[in-house]
Prior knowledge:
mainly alpha; Sodium/glucose cotransporter; two-stranded antiparallel sheet; globular
Amino acid sequence: xxxxxxxxxxxxxxxxxxxxxxxxxxxxxxxxxxxxxxxxxxxxxxxxxxxxxxxxxxxxxxxxxxxxxxxxxxxxxxxxxxxxxxxxxxxxxxxxxxxxxxxxxxxxxxxxxxxxxxxxxxxxxxxxxxxxxxxxxxxxxxxxxxxxxxxxxxxxxxxxxxxxxxxxxxxxxxxxxxxxxxxxxxxxxxxxxxxxxxxxxxxxxxxxxxxxxxxxxxxxxxxxxxxxxxxxxxxxxxxxxxxxxxxxxxxxxxxxxxxxxxxxxxxxxxxxxxxxxxxxxxxxxxxxxxxxxxxxxxxxxxxxxxxxxxxxxxxxxxxxxxxxxxxxxxxxxxxxxxxxxxxxxxxxxxxxxxxxxxxxxxxxxxxxxxxxxxxxxxxxxxxxxxxxxxxxxxxxxxxxxxxxxxxxxxxxxxxxxxxxxxxxxxxxxxxxxxxxxxxxxxxxxxxxxxxxxxxxxxxxxxxxxxxxxxxxxxxxxxxxxxxxxxxxxxxxxxxxxxxxxxxxxxxxxxxxxxxxxxx
Length: 519
C-alpha cells in the first residue's frame, strides 16, 4: 500500500506530467496540415531525438513492468531470454534493416508499413490485407494500458478500473491531435526519464550483492533452486534452450518489422543521419532491456510473491516492488516517484506510437482504399483518423478491463500472441522486399498467409489436437501442453516455415522461367 506522502506526490507528478505532455501536443498539432504530417511529421528533428523516440516506443511497459514480472517468477532463464538473446537479435536486425527500408520508404513516400508493402509489390490488395492484419496490434495497446494502470493504481491506491478509464481518455484524447510531431517531442522526454529510471531500478538491489555474485545466487537458490538455472522446465516460457535462445533469436529479428519501429527511420530528413540514429537508439535500447534484471530484486523482496497476505499477479509485481522499497524517507519517496514517472513514460511512449501507427493504418490502408471517394480532402482524412482513435479507445477499455480482472498468467501472453502473429506475417514481405528485387507479390503474399496460418495453428489447433486426441509431435509436443503457452514458439515456427515456403516458391518460379526460356 502506498503511503500518504507517496499518493500526494504521485498526484502532483501526474498533474505536472500531463501539463508537459499537453504543451508539446498543442505545439505539434499546430504543424499538422494533412494525414502525412500526422503519420511521419512535418518538423525536422535531430537524429538523436528520433533515436530516443524509437528507444522509448520500442521498449515499452512490457520491458519495464511486465517482463520483469516473468523474471521474478522464473529467474535467470528469463534474464537470458528477455535480457540478452532477444535484445541482441533485435538490435542487429534494426541495424541491418533500417537503411534499406528507409531508402525504399523515402522513394515511395510510404506512411505505414502496409503502404510500403503495397507499393513495393504494386498490390493494393496486399496493402489492404496487411492493414487488416495490423489490427492485431490492438493486443499490444491493451498490454500497455494494463501495465500503466497497474503502476498508477499501486502508486495512488486507486481502483484500477477507474485508473484505466482515466489513462485511455487522456492518452487517446491527445493522440487525436498531436501525431508524429508531438510524439517525437514527448518520446524524447520520456526516453530521457526512462534512462534515469533504468539506472535506478538496476541499482535498487545492489545491497543483495554485498557478499558478491555467489551470495546473490545463493539467496535466489534458497527461495527456489530453479531461479538460478539457465533453463526452467517448470515455466511455460523458458523450459529449454530451443525456447530461450532459438525462438527468441527468430522473434528478435522479426520484431523490428512492427510499423511503430521500422517506420521511425522515415522521420530522419537525411541519409547521413542514419548512423548517429542507430548508435543512440541501440545504446539506449540495450540499457532498457537490462531492466528485466530488477525482477530478481523483486523476488528477493517478495520471496513467496505475496504482499500483505495476497498473491501478487505477474503484472503487479514490479509496481508493488517500487512502492514497497521507496516508501521510507523523503528522499526515497522522491526517488520512488521518479521511478513511477519512468514506468509511466515507458508505457505511454509505446502507447503513443501504437495509437499513431495503428490509427494511420486503419485510416489510410483500410478505410480510404475501400471508400476512397468519400475521403478525399485533408480535413476529411484527419477527421476520419480522429474517429478511428475514438473506436480504438473503446476497444482498449473493453479488452483491458478483462485482462485486469482475469488475466491468464499475464497480459503479456495475450499481447505477444497478437503482435507476434502480425510481425510473423510482415517478416517475409519486408525482408524479401528489401533484399530480393525480383520478389513477386503472390509469393510474398503466400508467405504472409502461411505465417498467419502456422502461428495460430501452433498456438490453438495443435494444442487442441494434443489435448483432445492425444496426438504427439515429437519434442515439439511439450510446447503445446498446459493452460499457458509461449507465443514465441508459434511465432518462430511461423517465421521459419513461411520463409522456407517462400524460398521453395522462388526456386520453383526460377525453374519454370528457365524452362520457358529453353523451350
